[in-house]
Amino acid sequence: MVDGDAEQRAPAPATSPAAEEAEFLWELRKYVLLLATLAATVTYTAGMDPPGGFWTDNDGARLAGDLVLQVTYARRYKAFFYCNATAFVASLVIVNLLLVRFLCRRRWWLRALQAAMILDMFGLMGAYAAGSSREVAMSAYILALVILVCSYVSAHVLLYGLTAQVSAPEAPERVERARKYLLIFATLAATVAYQAGLSTPGGFWLASQVGNHLAGDPMLRGKHPYRFMVFFYFNTTAFVASLVTIMLLMSRTVSRHGFRSSALWVCVGATMAGLMGAFAAGSCRSFKTSIYVIALVAAVLLYIGIQATVFFCEPVKNWLHRAGQTLQKCLKLNELEQRNQQQIKLSKGDGDAYLLLKKSRMYLLLLGILAASVTYHAGLNPPGSFWQSDGFDGHRHYLAGDPILHITYHRRYMVFFYCNATAFIASLVILILLLSNMISTQGIKYRALQVAMIMDLFGLIGAYAAGSCRQASKSVYVSVLVLPVFLYVGIHVLVFMLEVSPTWATWRGRVMEKLEQCVPEWLKTLLELEEQVEEEEEEWKLEKRRKLLLLVAILAASLTYEAGMNPPGGFWQEGKFGHVGDPVLNDNYRRRYLAFFFCNATAFIASLAIIMLLVNRKLSARGIRSYALRVALVVSELLRRLVESLLANLVPLEEDAGELLTHTAGDGEARDLWDEKLPKYLLLLAALAAAVTYQAAMSPPGGLWDNGHIGGNPVLLSSYPRRYKVFFYCNATSFMASLVIMVLLLIKRVTNTQPALLALHAAMILDLFGLMGAYAAGSCRRVTTSAYILALLVGVSVYIVVLVVVSIGVARWMKNVMDKVGEKLTHCFSFEDL
């Protein structure tokens, strides 16, 4: 998914079936990592917030924070728990094994990982079947649907193979591109459908009613039975179709025939229809509003079509060209471009500079997606939950749907809100600027975007320190924890550089000598390494490891941030048994909660520290060579796994940046980076927007009524109807626009047409602005605070643009100073004077 240039560094072309299979497995490693990340993400979230919810009060043998489903549906919960836990642990084991280069590059190990991922997918299916419904018939429908979809794809592929005429094989690049884009789309669909299926829109009943429902049953089924059934069947169809698509893409033969016979595209169509239908049924309670949501698809398509038609016009093309030239002339970027082209000729090669530019932009894009996704969710569902009724605490009035923390811990909530909002807006601004070729290129070269992203990550740390706890001592612990992590990595790297102790190569040589004497021959053959793999350049090995570490660190940071904001067990809604807004687990299971808090906080801070170090190529190279970053990441993953096991027991850049500005290939021909990579960037951003908006629609800000009103309806709709409508329409428009953009990007003819690509580019920017509008409406309850968020957009944009311009000016001034100093030194020590 991330290294679009993998084929440039892949092993030599295959000459035998065995070599072809080895080459495919070499390419498969990034897909295995992608799928392991998917499984770990959704299973961790489901483990922290299981279906059915938690008890909210102490009553006899059970305590607040205990699992509802364990009491009312014990067998179903056990099936869900063991399937979910198995998939989670297997995913973490696979990710950690992929960190060991000695293992992950063996053909048989890759095959084993592939089989393990398929088992992971079946574990997800089992957990979904047990947790998304309460009836045996509905669970049986899910399993029958899996068999049905697999049978259809197999029959379609076989029938096509028997009846189709022999044709020339498709280009490998086209198949690789289609597989990559389909995996991104299927990953998005499986993630959001799994989470929405387990956390049904409308919430769950907190108490049983004889003859009507049990605690843990979905409220939507009791109040809107037809709407619930529509949501369930559409969401299940999207989930199963996406998982089947993923498993089929793991097979080279099936995926190739699936592309030719269009079987995979039929699964994609079913996934798309399922997501749209589930969103229309679960995000609202009115038939009229559901029709509006479906009609948004036609509106977005019409808008993109009109925009593409405009870009086809010659006057518009000329105006855009003139505008770009004027901006370059104002910033004097033409001179910089000429200088950098001269520098490239003296550097290590055009091709390497081109690859480094792609890598840097992709890393920043992934980090922006991380920060935007977690801050959007935390802003709409802040820590402490929401009030369920109107009231007065002696100082402030509040309405149902207002954040509890805003009343009970006012200063702490304000720190969390402003840090979180700043990080969210900064992330979206960085993502929008990354879609500009000129600004992003200059920003990466002069480290302006890297500095802005690091400040963004510090904003995440501030929001986490304020929102994850209620005591000043714990907030201080979180804030200063980043220093020991940096200190450890620095000492480890220093010891490695000074060779105080034997290097890793020395230790490895000694161990290999010992194993050589006692390991049987069949095991040596199994672990034998292909010769061509050893020929890889050392620098490219480091780059691949850097990318892998970054992906795993992003996974750990996103999961631990969300778990810290909304810890398992929920929050007290009334002051009868504990302080309102405090974690329930802290009162009923204090030792267990403290273990969770410190392990989760350490994993979060360690992950962010690793990300910050990975931004600099030289620091990350030394950290990777010394295994300091890898040790820190493995410790972070172990702490996260410890958190999961503890809670389970509740139930019995850049030194080389100066080389990055050129857009020329190694052969000297003009090479436009944008035409090649922009579709992937747009696809990733559309996946981000679709994922967070789907989740926000299923669990809207302000919470859901559980008494006094129609159970399962949004509280915000009653307390702040105008604000809720602004949030809903912005969120729904952004979701449908994201799905339409992804579908259009899967069509090769669209991505190869420049005006259509420009139209999608503009639509994606408006999509992100819609995301900002939904955040401004749903994350707060006052007009002044919403205005602050919109003003923050302007402020952050101006700050980053000014930072880029100032960086360019400082670099130009230093260049002139160094040139003058060089001229004077040359004049003083010239041979003519001697």
The strand line-up of the biggest sheet is: 1-2
Computed CA radius of gyration, to the nearest angstrom: 27 Å
Unreliable stretches covering 5 or more consecutive residues: 1-15, 338-350, 529-536, 649-674, 829-834
Q: How is the biggest beta sheet arranged?
A: 2 strands, antiparallel
- The coarse silhouette is globular
Work out the helix count: 36
Helix content: over 70%
DSSP strand tally: 2
Averaging pLDDT over every residue, what do you get?
A: 71
Distance between the termini: 61 Å
Briefly note the structural class of the backbone. mainly alpha
Q: Report strand %.
A: under 5%
Strand-helix topology:
Layout: H1 6-9, H2 17-48, H3 69-72, H4 74-98, H5 101-104, H6 107-131, H7 136-163, H8 172-198, H9 219-223, H10 225-249, H11 252-261, H12 263-282, H13 287-312, H14 314-331, H15 333-346, H16 350-380, E1 391-392, E2 397-398, H17 405-408, H18 410-434, H19 437-445, H20 448-467, H21 472-480, H22 482-498, H23 504-518, H24 521-526, H25 531-534, H26 538-565, H27 584-588, H28 590-615, H29 617-625, H30 628-648, H31 673-698, H32 715-719, H33 721-745, H34 748-751, H35 754-778, H36 783-828
Task: Output the keywords.
mainly alpha, two-stranded antiparallel sheet, 0% strand, disordered N terminus, disordered C terminus, PGG domain-containing protein, transmembrane, coiled coil, PGG_dom
Q: Can you describe what's shown?
A:
With 834 residues, this protein is mainly α. It has helices at residues 6-9, 17-48, 69-72, 74-98, 101-104, 107-131, 136-163, 172-198, 219-223, 225-249, 252-261, 263-282, 287-312, 314-331, 333-346, 350-380, 405-408, 410-434, 437-445, 448-467, 472-480, 482-498, 504-518, 521-526, 531-534, 538-565, 584-588, 590-615, 617-625, 628-648, 673-698, 715-719, 721-745, 748-751, 754-778, 783-828; strands at residues 391-392, 397-398. Helix 20 runs antiparallel to helix 28 (590-615) and helix 28 (590-615) runs antiparallel to helix 30 (628-648). Among the domains are: 25-164 and 172-202 and 218-282, no CATH class; 337-380 and 409-671, no CATH class. The protein has 36 helices and 2 strands. Strand 1 and strand 2 form a beta hairpin.
